[in-house]
Amino acid sequence: MDVSESSNFQRIRAESTGTFAAIASIDKVARLYSFTAVPGSDLIVNVGLSTQPILSPWRSRALIIGPVAVLLCGALVVFAVKLGKELRRRALAEAELAQLATTDGLTGLANRRRFDEVLEREWRRSVRTGTPLSLMVLDADHFKRVNDRYGHAIGDEMLKALAAAVNRCARRPGDLPARIGGEEFSVILPDTAEEGALFLAEKLRSELASSSIPLATGAIPACTVSIGVSTSHAEAESAIALCEAADRAVYIAKRAGRDRVEYVPISRQSIPLSFTPDLPGE
């Protein structure tokens, strides 16, 4: 049979040596051709092996490996999705725990731990930048009498009402309202001088003095508050010094008759007072 005109032979003749796979013109079988020209003659040595015995083992392994690889890829995708969900769930749980660790359970305000952290941070920033830092501390007047007369459930409602008013007072993102004791609250006011802090304190005191707590049997007046204010213009030796000055201002307000705002500058924080502070709730 003359194959000189076939495309396979024309390729062999043109390339002289090499390897390629093609369909044989004689038997129409897919073959792997390997050929080379004999130097010094017109002869070409060519071997054409069927690809079936060559590729059959590979195809058999591919039929096994392919599905296994698909299953493994699918399992990895499922694992990645589940891992992502678990990591997101864990992140949310950790964020919730962190929130609970720094939040007062009754009022929803920041707790004492959070208050201490933020006050220290803002004091350091005030010292570094030279900006004023004001602190407002307020204590409910005669709160123990409320508990004794109406019960602790009503006392809790009173504390929630106080917390809501304090929270409304702290409107800026940097302000921090906090419950730092039983009936004691505080507001950290960064970048706020005496005038601004005193204005907010008087506004809060006035609002609480005219508010009431609704009950099933009728409303009762909310507690009045004694508010102490102090401001540091980077001269406070520590955040504790600012807190002590504000506490001292609260005691002065209590001594002066309660339901009032008092201001104590940092320089007066070491002046002793000639009175005994109220017992909790008084």
Automatic annotation (TrEMBL):
Transmembrane parts of this sequence: 62-81
Keyword terms of this UniProt record: Membrane, Transmembrane, Transmembrane helix
Family annotation (InterPro entries): Diguanylate_Cyclase, GGDEF_dom, Nucleotide_cyclase, Rev_trsase/Diguanyl_cyclase
An individual GO BP term: negative regulation of bacterial-type flagellum-dependent cell motility
Listed Gene3D superfamilies: 3.30.70.270, PAS domain
Keyword Transmembrane helix among UniProt keywords: yes
Swiss-Prot/TrEMBL catalytic activity: 2 GTP = 3',3'-c-di-GMP + 2 diphosphate
Keyword Transferase: no
Top-rank lineage group of the source organism: Bacteria
Top EC category: transferase
GO cellular component terms, semicolon-separated: plasma membrane
EC number(s) reported in the record: 2.7.7.65
Domain GGDEF span(s) in chain numbering: 131-266
Molecular function GO labels: diguanylate cyclase activity
Name of protein: diguanylate cyclase
Source lineage: Bacteria, Pseudomonadati, Pseudomonadota, Alphaproteobacteria, Hyphomicrobiales
